[in-house]
Amino acid sequence: MARAGLTPQRVTIAGAELADEVGLDKVTMSQVARRLGVKDASLYAHVRNLEDLRGRIALLAADEKTIRIAEATSGRAGKDALVAFADAWREYAHEHPGRYTATQTRIRIDPDLAAAAAGPRRAVELTYGMLRGYGLTEPDLTDAVRLLRSTFHGFVALEASGGFAHERSPQRSWIHTLDALHTLLEHWPPSREGDSA
After folding, report:
1. Which residues fall within 8 angstroms of residue 80, CB to CB, at 6 or more apart?
2. Is the pLDDT of residue 32 over 60?
3. pTM of the predicted model, to two decimals?
4. What are phi and psi of 136, to 5 degrees?
């Protein structure tokens, strides 16, 4: 019998909070149970196993991050939208490192949960929408999405691991990086002949 008040959402949030505190890879079902004040077995009425919990954390985080980006970029275009998008991404990664990791890790997610989740789908729409403001079309859109994701994730991952030891502040480099990305997007090189696949 499931403990009163315990739901998949509550279990997921508890797991997400723990992931932010100790790291996604260190979260265990026992720790989540202790956090909720229940026995381990009580959790299995709400999530199948640890992988299922991680998948739910990833979907929760994708939704939260997407909402933050949508709010930040609303009514903006061009460089203003790019900077707002990037800053919201980086701030979320700083504030929720465990949840953020879940969005960047290959996790097997229940197909039904994934199909019902709006976050990942909305994230794609927001990213492509912002880049269409630069006049990009396929296959350049996909290439530009990959460039932005690689740049944003690479920067925040290096920052989180202490990889920027130079005396120049990471914030100054971040601002300059976004200036450079804006310039590149405005002057995107044309695709090569036969480069549609």
Report:
1. none
2. yes
3. 0.91
4. -85, 145
